[in-house]
Specification:
10 helices; about 350 residues; binds zinc ion; alpha/beta; Rossmann fold; Quinone Oxidoreductase, Chain A, domain 1; binds nicotinamide-adenine-dinucleotide; seven-stranded mixed sheet; 2 domains
Length: about 350
């Protein structure tokens, strides 16, 4: 099958022919229909995060079940599914506490064991699966606990966006921060993740939703998706602007860029008692600095992994929100591209030029 392989870090993706295995007892073979480009893939390509090469990247996808292993009862061939990298074992203390996205066993139990062969290979040599999924390929061979069944009426290109960006951004609002009606919110970074957080804040009933970006077209889109105010950080200090707009700071801020500077800005724009949630992937080794005295004002700084999701509950709900018109996905999907155009897609992402690009298989 055709797949986009990362052979060296830093590096670009190479379209190659690789082999995919047969489903083991608890595995599902999914025919990939759509896969979104997320900035996290780019962080790995650029070496901001380590990963063993060669690997097939991609982790925001939707498709149709092609075959299932002997013990799989949850899905059957023909079912439409969204994938989620938050593979969950279901029995560790995090899973049983309801924090499925923090599963402690995902990287030991939900991968192939020694002697079971490789899910992906090239000329007999193993190719690493990326974050349990490897979506930039015509097929995904995954553990059953990385997929959620959805309504077959849901367009799969829009469904793919739910696989990471929407769940991460909306989940950060609903599950990590638990924004309530009337709260004030600021979101720094209006890519797929930040725009989803903005939509989440609107749906949660936030009073002011302030979008911060450095690209005017992104701020325009943010407004159409629910931002009540916009701040262009290219020419305006976002902290001062948010303090002015809110008379002293927001209840909740979300960082959706992945930089030390923007994480510190997110903390700096809080009112007393406010909470900053860092969603962006800050490069390994980078420290975030804040003034300790701020804790006297009960300000909080936290992270969010994949929107603290329980994806088999959350994703079908997001599909319903798309159907009823509250979750706007057509507006976020800026372009559909071929697998062969994947490097150009990431180059455009780097410029901040697109909201989301999706590969159609
Ligand atoms: N925590 C998680 O589980 C999780 C999941 C998915 C993605 N992420 C991370 O979230 C971040 C955003 O991902 P994305 O796919 O939306 O990226 P993206 O590239 O699509 O969007 C980033 C946006 O930030 C803007 N930006 C860049 N520098 C800025 C600055 N200094 N101030 C304000 N805006 C700025 C860009 O113009 C762009 O619109 C990435 O770091 C990604 O790795 C984290
Ligand atoms: Zn992602
Ligand atoms: Zn677990």
């Amino acid at each position: 099958m055709k797949a986009a392989v990362l052979n060296a870090i830093p590096g670009v993706l190479e379209i190659e022919d690789i082999d995919v295995g047969e489903p083991g007892p608890r595995e599902v073979l999914v025919r990939t229909v759509a896969a979104g480009l997320c900035h996290s893939d780019l962080h790995f390509m650029e070496g901001k995060y380590p990963y063993p090469c060669p690997a097939v990247l991609g982790h925001e996808s939707a498709g149709i079940v092609e075959a299932v292993g002997s013990m799989v009862r949850y899905v059957k061939p023909g079912d439409h599914v969204i994938t989620c990298l938050s593979a969950f074992c279901g029995h560790c203390s995090q899973c049983t506490d309801g924090h499925l996205s923090l599963c402690e066993n995902k990287d030991t139990e939900l991968v192939r064991q020694p002697g079971e062969g490789n899910r992906l290979s090239r000329g007999g040599d193993p190719v690493n699966q990326f974050l349990h999924l490897s979506s930039f390929a015509e097929f995904m061979l995954v553990h059953e606990q990385t997929v959620v069944k959805i309504d077959n009426e849901m367009p799969l290109d829009k469904a793919a966006l739910i696989g990471c960006g929407v769940t991460t951004g909306m989940g950060a609002v609903f599950r990590t921060a638990k924004v309530s009606a009337g709260d004030t919110v600021a979101v720094i970074g209006c890519g797929g993740i930040g725009l989803s957080a903005i939509q989440g804040a609107r749906i949660a009933g936030a009073n002011k939703v302030i979008a911060v970006d450095m690209v005017a077209s992104k701020l325009q889109l943010a407004q159409s998706l629910g931002a009540t105010h916009v701040v262009n950080a290219a020419d305006t200090d976002p902290i001062q602007a948010v303090l002015d707009l809110t008379g002293g700071g927001v209840h909740y801020s979300f960082e959706a860029v992945g930089l030390k500077q923007t994480a510190e800005q997110a903390f700096g724009m809080l009112r007393r008692g406010g909470q900053a949630t860092v969603i962006g992937m800050i490069p390994v080794g980078t420290k975030v600095e804040i003034h300790g005295v701020e804790f006297l004002y009960e300000k909080k700084l936290t992270g969010s992994n994949m929107g603290s999701n329980q994806f088999r509950t959350d994703m079908p709900r997001f599909v319903e929100m798309y159907f009823d018109g509250r979750l706007k996905l057509d507006e976020m999907l800026w372009q559909t591209i071929a697998l062969e155009d994947i490097n150009e897609g990431f180059a455009e992402m780097k410029k901040g030029a697109v909201a989301r690009s999706v590969i159609a298989f």
